[in-house]
Design a protein that fits this description.
150 residues; alpha+beta; FAS1 domain; 7 helices; globular
Length: 150
């Protein structure tokens, strides 16, 4: 009996030690279903499973729900625009919350995000609601609004 318990404990330890990239980490969180579907529609899953490191400002399902359904459906159907919107949430490198400074930050696609630090952290019009969700290839900061490049 003790051997079975020990084997079970080792199996659980081995499972928890498995690598989780940005995409797997977001999917496991459970509140990024729309983001995961959008990444798939845009063909960006492999990119964010790549070496990185990446800093992702990840909009929750509630953030995507702020977009009118017809507009969201149109965005999901337009791969070029969807890719631009999603990549506006990705910054090269691993930026932890303690290292965030107010100012302009260039995304992986060249869009400039405006980061504010007064009264909490904001990224363009989005509020950062959770920070430092570490993945093997970067970090996720949760935001409450989808950033749409101008």
């Amino acid at each position: 009996m003790k051997k079975l318990i020990l084997v079970g404990a080792l199996s659980l330890a081995a499972l928890s030690a498995q690598a989780k990239d940005i995409v797997d980490t977001a999917v496991a969180a459970g509140n990024f279903k729309t983001l995961a579907a959008a990444l798939q529609a845009a063909g960006l899953v492999d990119t964010l499973k790549g070496k990185g490191p990446f800093t992702v400002f990840a909009p929750t399902d509630a953030a995507f729900a702020k977009i009118p359904k017809a507009d969201l459906d149109a965005l999901l159907a337009d791969k070029t625009k969807l890719t631009a919107v999603l990549m506006a949430h990705v910054v090269p490198g691993k930026v932890m919350s303690k290292d965030v400074k107010a100012g302009k930050v260039k995304t992986a696609q060249g869009y400039e995000l405006t980061v504010g630090t007064t009264g909490g952290v904001t990224v363009d019009a989005a509020k950062v609601t959770a920070v430092d969700i570490v993945a093997d290839n970067g970090v996720i900061h949760v935001i409450d609004t989808v950033v749409v490049p101008k």
